[in-house]
């Protein structure tokens, strides 16, 4: 038993994947399960495959390496670094791209390895992260790619609601389908995959507004948190607590609510402020900002307040709780997306799967 610990419920993750893959399949959409928030942990990815994911997708090649044993297509989500082209061709069957220079490098490695590497050309529909923005550049790029025998343009895709907060709508996704049609006309190329975004596109399925022709989505947050992400609404019948954080109490003492002496900067350069609530019972826990941000955790015990923390400590006010806590006891938290990401990345946090 080692703390802090994240407990991952594989059964709930499989059920969430099953629920969403069914909904998507009914509209002719296959899903890629996005594994980056849990650093590509193979047991969790396996639960998503059992739940009906047709692809695994991650933004980091290091994570795709961990998933090499699964025989379904793997997608690299972040545009490849030119310097990683060899690994991309080795460990990803498909990568998202927007730069011809990088595609050329992928082609060189694909040729050396006697492989065909698939790419999805990313189109920026206004969220202003990755993708080709100028329409002419799309057709020119596809023309240039034609000379690379070991590169196949499998499709086009877009990503929304990540930087600009742009909500996927019929209108912007129809643009993607328009571009597909023009590629057929102008490049004489029929595309297989039209990838219409991430969890923020799910609301279009719910309201039956998903344009026909979008046949692929890349889902992360919705599978692990049971939430669509355009409006932050919970998905009906999905599990929201697939990940649980447990931390251990290392000190319990009654102390004043205001520090004693002149107040300067805290450990992170901020000047803290305090409200005088008199003497309070405080529990000090063994987890800190190195492992998780305080804003990303939520107590199961609603009568406990989070007072703050530092790199390695979390301070709780346990005066009002009905539970009797002692040294060595465990306190549990729900995790936000950022909370899952950071705890799964921290080498100081133990990870345990249950089902
Ligand atoms: C992270 C990511 C996703 C998954 O996003 P969620 O909001 O977690 O569903 C999809 N596509 C790309 C390109 C990503 O980087």
Question: What percentage of residues falls in helices of 4 or more residues?
Answer: 25-40%
Shape: elongated
User: Average pLDDT across residues?
Assistant: 97
By secondary-structure content and strand pairing, the structural class works out as alpha/beta
Order of helices and strands: EHEHEHEHEHEHEHEHEHEEEEEEHE
> How many helices?
10
> What proportion of the residues form beta strands (DSSP E)?
15-25%
Distance between the termini: 18 Å
Question: In terms of per-residue confidence, which ranges show pLDDT below 50 for 5 or more consecutive residues?
Answer: none
Number of strands: 16
Q: What gyration radius follows from the Cα positions, in whole Å?
A: 24 Å
List the bound ligands: pyridoxal-5'-phosphate
Characterize the largest beta sheet: strand count, sense, and whether it forms a barrel.
8 strands, mixed
Features:
eight-stranded mixed β-sheet, eight-stranded parallel β-sheet, alpha/beta, binds pyridoxal-5'-phosphate, 355 residues, 10 helices
Describe the structure.
This protein is of the alpha/beta class. Helix content is 28%, strand content 24%. Strands 1, 10, 11, 12, 13, 14, 15 and 16 form an 8-stranded mixed beta sheet that branches. Helix 5 (100-112) links the parallel strand 5 and strand 6 (117-122). Helix 1 (10-26) packs across helix 2 (42-50), helix 4 (85-91) crosses helix 5 (100-112) and helix 6 (135-145) crosses helix 7. The chain is elongated and about 75 Å long. The two termini are 18 Å apart. The chain binds pyridoxal-5'-phosphate. Pyridoxal-5'-phosphate (PLP) binds at residues 34, 36, 59, 77, 159, 198-199, 218-222, 229.
């Amino acid at each position: 038993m080692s703390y802090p610990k994240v407990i991952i419920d594989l059964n709930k993750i499989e059920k969430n994947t099953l629920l969403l893959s069914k909904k998507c399949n009914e509209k002719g959409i296959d899903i890629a399960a996005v594994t980056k928030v849990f650093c590509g942990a193979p047991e969790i990815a396996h639960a998503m495959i059992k739940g009906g994911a047709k692809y695994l997708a991650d933004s980091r090649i290091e994570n795709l390496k961990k998933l090499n044993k699964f025989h379904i297509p793997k997608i690299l989500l972040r545009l490849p670094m030119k310097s990683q082209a060899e690994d991309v061709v080795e460990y990803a069957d498909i990568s998202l791209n927007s730069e011809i220079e990088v595609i050329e490098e992928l082609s060189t490695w694909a040729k050396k390895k006697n492989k065909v590497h698939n790419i999805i050309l990313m189109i920026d529909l206004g969220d202003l992260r990755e993708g080709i923005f100028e329409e002419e550049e799309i057709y020119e790029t596809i023309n240039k790619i034609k000379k690379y025998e070991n590169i196949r343009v499998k499709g086009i895709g877009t990503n929304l609601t990540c930087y600009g907060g742009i909500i996927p709508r019929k209108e912007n996704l129809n643009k993607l389908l328009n571009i597909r049609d023009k590629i057929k006309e102008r490049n004489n190329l029929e595309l297989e995959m039209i990838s219409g975004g991430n969890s923020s596109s799910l609301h279009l399925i719910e309201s039956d507004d998903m344009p026909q022709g979008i046949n692929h989505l890349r889902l992360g947050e919705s599978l692990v948190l049971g939430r669509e992400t355009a409006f932050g609404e919970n998905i009906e019948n999905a599990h929201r607590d697939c990940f649980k954080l447990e931390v251990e109490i290392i000190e319990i003492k009654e102390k004043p609510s205001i520090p004693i002496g002149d107040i300067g900067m805290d450990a992170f350069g901020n000047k803290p402020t305090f409200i005088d609530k008199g003497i309070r019972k405080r529990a000090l826990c063994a987890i800190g900002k190195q492992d998780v941000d305080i804003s990303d955790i939520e107590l199961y015990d609603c009568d406990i307040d989070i007072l703050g923390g530092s790199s390695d400590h979390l301070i709780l006010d346990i005066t009002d709780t009905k539970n009797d806590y002692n040294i060595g006891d465990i306190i549990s938290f729900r995790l936000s997306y950022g909370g899952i990401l950071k705890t799964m990345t921290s080498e100081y946090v133990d990870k345990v799967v249950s089902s």
